[in-house]
Amino acid sequence: MKSKLIALSFLLLSSLCLSACSQTTPVPADNGEQPVAGIKINNLAPDFSLKNLTGQEIRLSNLQGSGVILNFWKISCSYCKQEMPFFEAAYLKNKALPSGIKILMVNITENKSLIEQFLKDNRFTFPVLLDTTGATGQTYNANYIPITYFINAEGIIKAIKFGAFSSQTDFDNQLNKIN
Questions:
Q1: Residues of 43-78 as b/e, b for ≥16 C-beta within 10 angstroms?
Q2: d(Cα 150, Cα 130) in Å, to the nearest integer?
Q3: C-alpha angle 132-137-140 in degrees, rounded to nearest 5
Q4: How large is the average pLDDT for residues 111-115?
Q5: What keywords are annotated for this sequence in UniProt (predicted)?
Q6: For residue 136, what are the contacts with CB-CB under 8 A and spacing of at least 6?
Q7: pTM given for the model
Q8: Which H helix or E strand runs over 158?
């Protein structure tokens, strides 16, 4: 009886081992699933729609196929103003290219006429979107500005810069992550 119990136990263990050995290990490789939407690196950038200064509705998801630099700012932020020449240079370099980098400068809750005057006084021509309620800024955690997201042509966040860029080189290093 004891030998039958041992033999039965051995058979049971053997079948469990064979069963376990034949299992395939899940592969965490790209399986074609869409990345999760969120505001972290390698997340799909949350979609939004805001009006520009001329009243045209701009939707982030409509820009897929081009890299996007998404910056949140205010005129009242001195650091924001300090880095604007870097965005202007990128805008001027890419505006004529059909699939060039798109620049979206999202102003949070400031008056449209003040923004227009600020742009005119400083000769900035990049597109400005109006986040009149601050809701898009909240989605992108723009509690402290400036904050800039570098989004690739597939809509994936590849870099985030908290605070102002200190130099053109600093800006270009982030920009290269979506080129």
A1: bbbbebebeeeeeeebebeebbebbbbbbbbbbebe
A2: 19
A3: 155
A4: 98
A5: Signal
A6: 48, 50, 106
A7: 0.80
A8: strand 157-162
Distance CA 35, CA 55 (A): 31
Structure tokens given for 74: 């205010």
Per residue in 129-176, pLDDT (tens digit) is 999 999 999 999 999 999 999 999 999 999 999 999 999 999 999 999
Dihedral over alpha carbons 115, 118, 123, 127 (to 10 degrees): -20
Question: Within its chain, how far is the Cα of 65 from the centroid?
Answer: 14
Residue count of the chain, please give it.
179
Can you read off the two tokens belonging to residue 117? 């005057």
The tokens for 26 are: 């899940």
**Token match 């053109």: residue?**
168
Token duo for residue 138: 């909240």
Look at residue 144 and give its three-state secondary structure: coil
CB neighbours (10 Å) of residue 152?
A: 18
Please give the structure tokens belonging to residue 38.
Answer: 């969120």
- Residue 3 amino acid letter: S
